[in-house]
Automatic annotation (TrEMBL):
The entry's keywords: Repeat, Signal, TPR repeat
Protein name: Tetratricopeptide repeat protein
Species classification: Bacteria, Pseudomonadati, Bacteroidota, Cytophagia, Cytophagales
Superkingdom of the organism of origin: Bacteria
InterPro entries: CellSynth/LPSAsmb/PSIAsmb (IPR051012), TPR-like_helical_dom_sf (IPR011990), TPR_rpt (IPR019734)
TPR repeats, residue ranges: 194-227, 228-261, 485-518
Keyword field contains Mitochondrion: no
SMART domains, per the entry: TPR
Length: 539
């Protein structure tokens, strides 16, 4: 499946990462891992000010990419030369402010205060780097190595340290080799560590290894059926694998367990949009915008969704408002211009809209095939069939003949433009390539029916007959019900106008069985079965 890069970004931007496991095991730690950030914050604030509370609040804000708030709370931790955690808090505050040198100095003080014999100190320092925005993790990995030496004395890897190690390597790796090795070591040291399995699955998902990703997420769920992040990640796996129904089912489980927050609602809206559930997405989008009117991601997909729902005038207004703000913030993406171009085309401003899409093609030639496909669909939607035809043909020439759906859309464009011969030719090529494609026989039958308006030649007859045969024998014949009605009525009429009522009647009867409300079928049956009037007797 061809996933647009910005769609990956949309999901990632609205995803909230789980935290590295802490040495402490508290209700707050669990809430953070479960992505229940408001709950964690409320719990901490109720506990009143203390070093531990301020430290945890700092972590919470750092993980939510709010460095100023993180620095504020870390700075509230009272320095105690006998307590390494207070020095680590000072180091975290420095990292939040972008001062790596000062941070390292504070972390070194913490190691010195613990005499280098406290594994939790090395783990907390590794977590500090992993959860911060810093990209240079070379010094962090040195602390990890010291922690590994200490852990080796126990005979097994420490899960919390290994998760932090993996998170650090994720900042610098493209393939994820050492990161995956770290998470696997975490599970070797602690076989039931749910978070390590989720991290392993996320790495597999990043490399498009869907089966491996699914395996790890399901393992996490088997250990803790209430671990919300695993359902979220599993939903994304199914989505990217093209299994949309499964994706939605898993995401519904996630939302049932996740915190009811603006962020969760936004993620739900994005997920519904990406799975083409546009009306449902609009409900969630409106909820987010009611609380956060300036949310760019939601304003973007609101405009996109309105277009997909066929509300082009509303989509144009929403898109123009969004683009004004996004442009001012330098946050426009290529797909914004593509969508706006499609909206312009549909509104009748064909040249202006096409220019925007063409500009996107020139800006990124690697996306030419995908963008031409979008442009052709826009022409179809605007009923500009000649331009749709020329665009599809150019796109297919550039793409080795195009995909199955491209041929179908081009053939439909020919039909709408009353060019039935090339449509029939395309459907013929399609069925030669994919003889098991049941809808193709109905499509070719319709093209031939248009070539033979009075049905006297019976050009559509062999294709409707084959359609009935294949649709009836399929796994889900009920999904072809309307097509079967159409095919039986055509064949019934063909034989009727030939004068063969015996052959005609069964087709009309079958059409009526499939759709008892079909008045045309009932009328035909009555006409065929009505007794002939006796000739008038002479007086």
């Amino acid at each position: 499946m061809n996933i647009k890069p910005w769609k990956l970004t949309l999901l990632a931007a609205l995803s909230v990462s789980g935290t590295a496991a802490l040495a402490q095991n508290t209700a707050v730690d669990k809430a953070l891992q479960m992505e229940r950030y408001n709950e964690a914050r409320s719990t901490l604030l109720r506990q009143g000010q203390s070093n531990e509370t301020s430290f945890q609040l700092g972590r919470l804000y750092q993980m939510r990419e709010m460095p100023d708030s993180a620095a504020y709370y870390f700075s509230r931790v009272s320095y105690d030369k006998k307590e390494p955690m207070t020095m680590i808090a000072a180091g975290r505050a420095a990292l939040a402010k972008g001062n790596a040198t000062e941070a390292q100095s504070k972390f070194d003080e913490a190691v010195k205060a613990s005499k280098g014999k406290d594994l939790s100190v090395f783990t907390m320092i590794a977590q500090a780097y992993a959860e911060s925005g810093t990209k240079d993790v070379s010094k962090a990995l040195e602390y990890v190595k010291e922690g590994e030496k200490f852990a080796a004395k126990t005979g097994k890897d420490d899960a919390a340290l290994m998760i932090a190690r993996g998170d650090l390597y994720q900042k610098i790796e493209t393939g994820g080799g050492e990161a995956m090795n770290s998470y696997e070591r975490a599970n070797t040291g602690e076989p039931n560590n749910v978070q390590a399995y989720v991290r392993r699955g996320q790495l597999a998902l990043r490399s498009r290894d869907y089966n491996r990703a699914k395996e790890n997420f399901e393992k996490a769920i088997s250990i803790d059926a209430n671990y919300a992040p695993a359902y979220n990640a599993l939903a994304e796996t199914y989505y990217f694998a093209g299994r949309y129904d499964d994706a939605l089912a898993q995401f519904q489980k996630y939302t049932a367990l996740a915190e009811n927050s603006t962020e969760t609602t936004a993620k739900n809206a994005a997920f519904l949009y990406l799975t083409q559930k546009y009306p449902e997405a609009m409900v969630e989008i409106d909820k987010v915008l009611a609380a956060d009117p300036d949310n760019l991601a939601m304003n973007r997909i609101r405009a996109y969704s309105l277009y997909e729902m066929g509300k082009n005038d509303e989509a144009m207004t929403a898109m123009q408002q969004y683009m004004t703000v996004a442009k001012a913030q330098d946050k426009l993406i290529a797909d914004d211009n593509v969508y706006y171009g499609k909206m312009l085309i549909k509104s009748g401003k064909t040249a202006e809209g096409a220019a925007l899409v063409d500009a996107a093609i020139k800006a990124d030639p690697k996306k030419a095939t995908e963008l031409r496909k979008e442009l052709a669909k826009a022409y179809l939607s605007a009923k500009d069939y000649p331009k749709a035809i020329s665009t599809y043909r150019k796109m297919m020439q550039e793409n080795n003949g195009g995909e199955l759906t491209d041929k179908v859309y081009l053939a439909r464009a020919y039909e709408q433009n009353e060019q039935y011969m090339p449509a029939d030719s395309l459907y013929g090529a399609l069925l030669k390539e994919r003889p098991e494609y049941v809808p193709g026989y109905q499509m070719r039958a319709r093209a031939n029916a248009n070539l033979d308006p009075d049905s006297k030649k019976g050009l559509a007859k062999p294709y409707y007959e084959e359609y009935i045969k294949m649709a009836t024998a399929s796994d889900k014949p009920e999904s072809y019900k309307s097509g079967l009605v159409e095919a039986n009525k055509y064949l019934g009429y063909y034989y009727y106008q030939k004068g063969d009522k015996t052959a005609s009647l069964p087709y009309w009867q079958q059409a009526l069985t499939l759709n008892p409300a079909d008045e045309q079928a009932q009328t035909a049956i009555d006409a065929i079965t009505k007794p002939a009037k006796a000739p008038a007797r002479r007086k």
